[in-house]
Each structure stands twice: as structure tokens, then as C-alpha cells.
Amino acid sequence: xxxxxxxxxxxxxxxxxxxxxxxxxxxxxxxxxxxxxxxxxxxxxxxxxxxxxxxxxxxxxxxxxxxxxxxxxxxxxxxxxxxxxxxxxxxxxxxxxxxxxxxxxxxxxxxxxxxxxxxx
Length: 120
Fold this sequence. Notes:
Number of domains: 2
Shape: elongated
Helix content: 10-25%
Order of helices and strands: EEEHHEEHEEE
């Protein structure tokens, strides 16, 4: 049974637990489990932001200081290269988004593609 299911279900018995709801009924009389999401769980499951989003946020958010940020990207010949954000803006056309691996703010990693760290 899906919450998006447009069919009508007949509920014979409903029991509510801490983390789930058990429903007995429906078309076949089979017991179904519905997972209950708490608000704090939903916030944890938000989408991982793209490098493009982070670049735009650093570049255009007046509350963020560009000089505090560094970008780590993968150069085909040199491996991982870390540069200042200002320097990145100057040569943004040369660095493709899929090569960006991480962003650092004053030495702390705030976004990492491989480790799925997103503190924005």
C-alpha cells in the first residue's frame, strides 16, 4: 500500500506504534506497514547539493566571504589541486564541475563529493 496509491482501501484494524502504523484490511486482508517519518529524519534525507550550487552560493551570497574558501579539484595530470576561490573564478572555464572534489572554509571541509559532506 502506497500513500500515493489512488485505490480505496478498507481498514479493518489500525494500530499505531512509535515508529510505524500497522493496517489490517485493504483488498486482500494482508497486513501492511506504513513507515512514519519524523520531521528531523526528513531534514537528514535532503538532497546532496551540487558543486554548481555551492559555487553560486559562495559567489553571490553577501554573507559569505570569498577569501575564506578554497576549492579542491582533480587535474588530469597533477592529481588533486587546491586553489583559492578567487583564483577558481578567474579560470572557471578551464575547470569542469565534475572535477571539483571539495570546498574548504578556513581549513575545514564544508563540502566533499566523495565523502558526501554538505554543511551548506
